[in-house]
Amino acid sequence: MFHVLEHIPYPVEVMKLVDKALTTGGIIVIEVPDTAGGIARLHGKRWSYYVNHHVNYFDMRSLHQLMSAFGFRCCLVKRTYHFSYPQGQLLKDLVKGMLAAAGINSIIRTVWTK
To answer: Which residue(s) pair with 2 in the sheet?
Structure first.
């Protein structure tokens, strides 16, 4: 679910369907803009992911709250600088990776299982 949940008016209803469809031991990968990320904090209300077609916003805490309500546990969290990272350009990817590692990220990519 790459950049899906921020567009869904009722993410709990969607997660009910995912929970029902996912077999035991299955995984779900979710990537969303991170409202607690460094870039969101730096830009405030001018953050580029605050747009009219995003109807929900998440950070790690709210994503964990949503997923744990269905018994999912987080196996992996990766903070990335931008949704198009990596781009296959060594210098750009290196800089963006270092910025994300330092907390200057815009995106959280997570892996969940039951």
So the answer is: 31
Amino acid identity of residue 104, one-letter, is: I
**Which candidate, 71, 67, 72, 50, places its Cα nearest to that of 6?**
50
19's CB contacts (< 8 A; 6+ apart) are 70, 71, 72
Alpha carbon 52 to its chain's center: 18
The pTM of the full predicted model, rounded to 2 decimals, is 0.87
Per residue in 79-107, pLDDT (tens digit) is: 988 766 677 888 888 888 888 888 888 99
User: Are the C-beta atoms of residues 75 and 27 closer than 8 Å to each other?
Assistant: yes
Burial of 56 (0-12, 13-18, 19+ CB in 10 A): middle
Structural domains in the chain, CATH included, are 5-113 (3.40.50.150)
Burial status of residue 10 (CB atoms within 10 A of its CB: 0-12, 13-18, 19 or more) = exposed
